[in-house]
Every structure is written in C-alpha cells, then in structure tokens.
Design goal:
about 475 residues, alpha/beta, Aconitase, domain 3, 2 domains, 5-stranded parallel sheet, globular
C-alpha cells in the first residue's frame, strides 16, 4: 500500500473526476465569500439562470470594505457602501448565510471560519481570497480562487484544479523569547524567496510547529502564499481538537467522537515522499522585519539591509528601485529609524492571542507621541473577548485605542490608509507598493516588534527594552 502525505489523503478523497494530462474536478466542502471577489460571480449565475447548488456550504461575511470606526452608522465611502450592500442583496437572493456589518459573527473571513467551527480537519476549503491558506492550520486543503472559480463553486460545489506538487518544511528547535510565529514564516519566506514554493502545497511539520498554538499555526499557514505556494497545512492533533470542541458549527455528541476518530487519521504516512523538503532551525531565528516591497525581503531586526553586491545581477535594478521607494539605502540598519504608524490586525495577526501579546508588551508603558496606532480585532468575537479579558483597559492606559473589526490597514480598500511617504510597522501579510495606501511604506513584523516600536516610536529590537 502506497504511503500518502496528508495533502494526498485529503485531495485524492475529494476528486470527482480527472482529465487526462489536465486538471481534476475537486469537490469543495466549505466556500467562504466576501464582498470584493463575489459580485461578478453572482451576476454570472443570474445571467445563466442558475441557483447556488448547495447554499448550506457557503458562508458570507463583510470584511475588506468595512470601516473600523462608527460601524453603527451608514458607511461613508460610496464604493465601500455599494460593495457591502451588494453582498447583502446577493446573499439574501441566493439564500446564503451572511455575517454582515454589525452581526455578532462578523469579521475577517479567515478569522471567523475557525472561531465558529466552520473550518474542520479534512475539508477542502476555497474563498476568493489568496490568504484562504490560513485554514490549512486545521489540516485542510484550503486555497484562494479567482472570481470565475467562485462562480463555478457556487454553481456546482466543484472546481477544476491541477494537483500541486508537495513540499514539507520541517521546523525544529526552541524559539527565542521574542520570536513569534510571524517571525518564523517571515524567515522561511526570506530563505525560499517569494517564488520558491510556486506550484507546491506546503505541509509544515516538526516540534516547533507542534508546540505552536492554533492561532500561531494560522499565522504560518496564512503567509504560505507569500512564498508562492498554493497553500499551507498542518496535521491536526489534540490542540486542534481542543480548539474546535464546542464551537457553534463543530459536530456535537456522538458525531464529535466519530469526527475526531477520523481526524486522527489525517497525518502523513511514515515513508511518504515529498517533491521537496526544507529544514529550518527555529533556535537560529531572531525577531524579523522587512525592508522592501515584497514579503521575501525579511531580515533579522538587528541586521543591515543587503549591499548591492550581495544581490544577484538580474535583480539589482529592481532592488535599487525598491529601496528608492522605501527611502532606504543598501547596507543601512533599520534599528532606530522613526516610523509613523503601527498596525496590529489582519487575517495574519488579528486574533485574540495577538491582542493578548501586544497588550502584554505595552502594559505599564506609554505609546510614543509620534506613533498613530491602529489596533484592530479580526472579528466581533475577538473584540468581545478583548473587552472581557481587560485587554482594552490595558491598551487604553498605555495610550492605545482598539478599533472595530475588519481587514483595516492590511489593504487600501477602506478608510484605514497609510498616507504617502509614511512608514508603517504592520503585522499584516503584504508590503507591496501602495498596498496600505498610495505611496505608503510598509515594514512587516510580528506583534512583539510592533509593540516595542509603538512604545519607542522607532524600529526597536524587543531584546533592547524588555527584560529576558
């Protein structure tokens, strides 16, 4: 009997039919839908006179265009208001569950799926959003799709997909006190490059991954796409089951017991072969920060930006252009550089554990006067938990205010835009030119570096201000 990887077990069991030397028809268990990539898909259904094939499998939420203040008032931005209203109308017309603005379950699509028990091990999951790979933390084959594929999923609950190659990244070793899951994935991407995993689906393994919380695992899987991968995944274990137990949409009673027995079989067989293997020593990783305009430009926070001579000849022109945009020089250190904004949030670092971490590191201190900080929970449930746990009080005493849920400053699709020329230390997932607003300059980092920077007003190594 052939040894199978976790990816093989899930993918192969969902194949409906195959085209010789072509894609496979893959059945989709769960479809998530938001306001940005769905309008044309619903219009396509109307034009063809089709209904949603299995409406109970699709869940909608408003997140990209949602304002993060005054959510009880009419949305000011006309484009955002239209997008949100259109999603609501489409969900109602096609009889889909929607968690709209103000709903108790509203939030970023990749936050609300897991916290409500909609994301379960062994599922195939798609969404018109590249960071759908987040859900792979639960032992799912989860990936982003385009608008035409959103329509395909709505109409048939299947999509056509070529089967990706398989990569395993094994991470072993004990993490430094101030190194987070975000630092680990930024380090991995700095080594693979933004195209190093193109064509692959990544399985993360090793003791470091097993020791991570579910929130940390979601952060790692979330940014798999930034290495070029189709998605990322982690085998489910007792932590997974404990996280999901008693969630609203999780199985209950005998169904839960049967489900867990099935989920325990979702692991890569010993001897299964991957197309590529990478090994990472977690003990060697320090707090990370990016200096450029792609997530692969990560360096240790106490390192210098590379010199031009260290860059491959074919990339030197783009390297110089990137540094010119960022206002940095080759060989420069980032430590001590003033920044203007700090953003904690997004589907990468907007969960309750991220807010707990940030609050822990700002407690008893004060926000620097030059810093504008946007602290944005990933969902209404995260917002409520932060209030109940006293995190909001800690933040307020330190000079911070928590905003309302949404994608916020991760991308410039709502009012939370970083002004041109300003620097933002951001816990989101992308630092492309203009990603956070036209002319904005984004430095990706984890919650601990973000907290240290918010307190000092300059890019700061956590080791320099916190006791060991």
């Amino acid at each position: 009997m052939k040894e199978l990887t976790l990816f093989d077990k899930i993918w192969d069991s969902h194949v409906v039919s195959s085209i010789e030397d072509g894609p496979e028809q893959l059945y989709i268990d769960r479809h998530y839908c938001h306001e940005v990539t769905s309008p044309q898909a619903f219009e396509g259904l109307r034009n063809r006179g089709l209904k949603v094939f299995r409406p109970q499998n699709t869940f909608c939420t408003a997140d990209h265009n949602t304002p993060t203040i005054d959510q009880d008032k009419p949305v000011k931005d006309a484009i955002s208001r239209f997008q949100l209203e259109t999603l609501k109308k489409n969900a109602e017309e096609f009889n889909l569950q929607i968690f709209g603005l103000g709903h108790a379950k509203n939030g970023i699509v990749h936050v609300i799926g897991p916290e409500n028990g909609l994301t379960l091990p062994g599922m195939t999951i798609v969404c018109g959003d590249s960071h759908t790979s987040t859900h792979g933390a639960f032992g799912c084959v989860a990936f982003g799709i385009g608008t035409s594929e959103v329509e395909m999923t709505l109409a048939s609950q299947c999509i056509l997909q070529p089967k990706p190659l398989k990569m395993r990244i094994t991470v072993n070793g004990k993490l430094d006190n101030y190194v987070t899951a975000k630092d680990i994935i930024l380090y991995i991407i700095s080594k693979t490059g933004t195209g190093g995993a193109t064509g692959y689906f990544i399985e993360y393994a090793g003791e470091t991954i097993r020791n991570m919380s579910m929130e940390e695992r979601m952060t790692v899987c979330n940014m798999s796409i930034e290495a070029g991968a189709r998605g990322g995944m982690i085998a489910p274990d007792e932590k997974t089951f404990e996280y999901l137990k008693n969630r609203e949409y999780s199985p209950k009673g005998e169904q839960w017991d049967r489900a867990v027995e099935c989920w325990k079989k979702l692991a890569t067989d010993e001897g299964a072969v991957f197309d590529k293997e990478i090994f990472i020593d977690a003990a060697a990783v320090k707090p990370m920060i990016t200096y450029g305009t792609n997530p692969g430009t990560g360096i240790f926070i106490d390192e210098r930006i590379p010199d031009v001579e260290q860059i491959e000849e074919a990339s030197k022109t783009s390297f110089k252009k990137m540094l010119d945009y960022m206002g940095f020089a080759p060989g420069e250190k980032l430590l001590g550089k003033p920044v203007d904004y700090v953003f904690l949030g997004s589907c990468t670092n907007g969960r309750i554990e991220d807010l707990r971490t940030f609050a822990h590191f700002v407690k008893g201190r004060k926000k620097a006067d030059n810093i504008i900080a946007w602290i944005v929970p990933g969902s209404k449930q995260v917002e409520q938990a932060a209030q109940e746990e006293g995190l909001v009080e800690i933040l307020n005493e330190a000079g911070f205010e928590m905003r309302q849920p949404g994608c916020s400053a991760c991308l410039a699709m709502n009012d939370d835009k970083i002004p041109a020329g300003k620097y933002a230390v951001s816990t989101s997932n992308r630092n492309f030119e203009g990603r956070q607003g036209p002319g904005s300059r984004t430095l990706l980092a984890g919650p601990v570096v973000a907290a240290a920077t918010a307190i000092t007003g300059v890019i700061t190594n956590p080791h320099d201000i916190y006791a060991e």
